Amino acid sequence: MKEFFQSLKRHVLTGVSYMIPFTIAGAVIMGIARVGAMIYGVTDIWDAAHETAGGLVPFFHTLDGLGGLALGLMLPVFAGFIAYSIADRPALVSGFVGGMLANKLGTGFLGALAAGLIAGYLVKIMAEKIQLPESASSIVPVFILPVFGTLFTVLIMQYIIGGPFAALNSGLVNWMSTMSKGSGSLVIALVVGGMVGFDLGGPINKAAVVTAMALITEGLFVANTAAQVAIIIPTLGYGMATLIKKAKFSNELREAGKASFIMGLVGISEGAIPFTLINPIKMIPVNVVGCAVGSAVAVSLGAVNTIPISGIYGWLLVKNWPVYVLGILVGASIIAAGAIFLGTGFDATDEIDAVM
């Protein structure tokens, strides 16, 4: 059973890794279009009425739509490559079509996840069970598996799980929409930020980030704002600590701190791992608190990040970007202070906590 869940995690993360470039590309293109449209005072560039406007407004309207095309591939690609990870190329078409149907049925991220798993395991079972004479075996991967894998996947999605998953997704979206207003947004920011800081690129981190990206397609940006702030904070914080209190750290960690600082600015949270693993009992809580507080500061002061980019190159596309940066600095300062005043073992002479 443990091996099954490990393989299931691997399949899902494969889908995530292929999905992320589509999400980023589509969201950034849409972000460029919307920032460009603001020059003309247009804040709803997606509205069809702007097709015949003056200046570059029609161009930005078209650009926004093109970005939407890329973003619309997010769920089909996610489902397709989950299926691919399970049963290789014969399952790709089943997964892609299942993901497209998940989009059409309004089942959202959860429906695409189900479509990918259904397609992958159906095709895998058929590949293992269907035995044809050697002269006819070549038709199995190019005809039988894609055709019947797709047929069974879409029938299951359409008539069995589509309705319940659409209702579940609608309920989650409505709940998140309600939570995104007032004090609820602060709760979301604290939870998402803390999850991102907990295991620095691990499954809890990825669960928060992927969920936040999925909510972008529903027009909900609080979770994404919190996640993108939190991704930066630990690596930036440890980099700051090595610059502020050099004597606290060994030569190796000082060098790691320089790399960590840069990794923070470009949005790579794994740069904090070497520092965290030296004494995780103290530093994991520091990471969680720093990320949660930094995310809460940015969200509560009105920062809105509509694109799944955490690095410095995307900051100017954030609404109210000065408070967004403030949230990052507050969280990173908490991490730096925690490393300096609570951390032990960084200079290889202090007592070191048991490493996980």
Commentary on this structure:
It is a single chain. The chain is mainly alpha-helical and 356 residues long. The relative contact order is 0.09. The C terminus is likely disordered. It is found in: Cell inner membrane.
Number of domains: 2
Q: Please describe the biggest sheet, giving its number of strands, its sense, and whether it closes into a barrel.
A: none
Task: Estimate the mean pLDDT confidence.
Answer: 88
**Structural class computed from helices and strand pairing:** mainly alpha
Q: What is the assembly state of the chains in this entry?
A: single chain
Give the number of helices.
Answer: 13
Name the helix and strand elements from N-terminus to C-terminus, one letter apiece: HHHHHHHHHHHHH
Spans with pLDDT under 50 lasting ≥5 residues? 351-356
Distance between the termini: 23 Å
Secondary structure: number of strands: 0
Helical fraction equals over 70%
* Strand content bin: under 5%
- Tell me the Rg in angstroms: 23 Å
Shape: globular
Pfam families: PTS_EIIC
Protein name: PTS fructose transporter subunit IIC
Transmembrane segments: 12-33, 66-87, 108-127, 139-161, 182-201, 221-244, 256-278, 284-316, 323-346
Keywords: Cell membrane, Membrane, Phosphotransferase system, Sugar transport, Transmembrane, Transmembrane helix, Transport
